[in-house]
Fold this sequence. Notes:
The strands form three sheets. This protein has a five-stranded mixed sheet with strand order 2-1-5-3-4. The protein is about 40% helix and about 15% strand. The N and C termini lie far apart (about 45 Å). The chain has helices at about 40-50, 75-80, 105-115, 120-130, 130-135, 150-160, 170-175, 200-205, 215-220, 250-265, 290-305, 315-330, 345-350, and strands at about 5-15, 25-35, 60-65, 65-70, 85-90, 95-100, 100, 240-245, 270, 310, 340.
Amino acid sequence: MPFENQLDINVRAFFFNAKTDYLPYYKNFSFTMQKETTLKDVLKLIKEKNSNFSYPEKDLVFRVNELIVTGEEKVAEVVQDLGTELLIEPALKYRSNNGLILNDHDFIHNFRQIFKRHMESKEDLINYVKCYPLHYASETFNYNHEYIGDAILVLAHKMITEGCSDCKDEILKAINDPFNGIRCCEYENNIYKGEDYGEKIAELKEMINLKEKESLIDKLSAKTLRTLDHSLESIEGRNIAFYAGDKNLNSKELKKKIEREIAQSSANLIKFEMSNKLAGQTIIDSHRELAHQKAGTVLLNALDNGADTLICSKDSDLDFFKNVISRCERVMGREIELKLISLGEFEDLK
Length: 350
């Protein structure tokens, strides 16, 4: 067959020029690609169709369907994993100067600020530069623009375990800024087919006592928080979304199964973008305010997509949301009118 080596893709691409545009905008493109072509070839085709589209020739990292890529990935593999509808955006939209071109001064600045010259070596800098995509894949940047970045934490772990063990206490102190350091990190692997650094960052956290004392404001506000009723007698006619909570294969399969069951029930299926995002569960003891902000963002994402009921795949996630939802309302400045139920409760009501 003459077209067996071709595939059709639809691309929605990000446009923004800080010198001429007040807000970013998107344009749609359709291409027929050879399967062996790369994502960088897609960028070239967009540029040919619209000269306003920009991307860096050096240090190219960007997002496709919210995952960080370098442009060397084969289109056929990406389509197999992510589908033929591709959303192309900067690695961090708020750092875009022109299209996919970033103001990346923070990358080396953070390294110099954290690792003083007597602590780091030329080899450490080389290892850090290799983590350029990891830095901009950091989930925490979506909530705290001053965060030091996941790459700093991965390098700190490498320095402590493989080289600068004598500097361990100093390194741990350097990454433990109470506002922008490791306390903020709820790691998620956002790199397409990238190495997972969750265990290494967890080991770093174990080296530091990160438990945060409850503030006086939290104690006082806890007494005035409204009590929400999450009981449900029927799902008929309700708009139900499903929160899976992480990106592992089992959660993806479970999500497909439960969403199919919702669609086949007397309820209405609601999908929302953050159904596979962590919501502050792992940082509630180290950075309560950020945990409440993250949980509030996830819950409002479901609500604003039309859900009135949220099924939680894990009982621990259900307990977490029930415990923090009123505080989330305070942090987000909005009421969150969602019924929260367990997977078991949904099965009983189905």
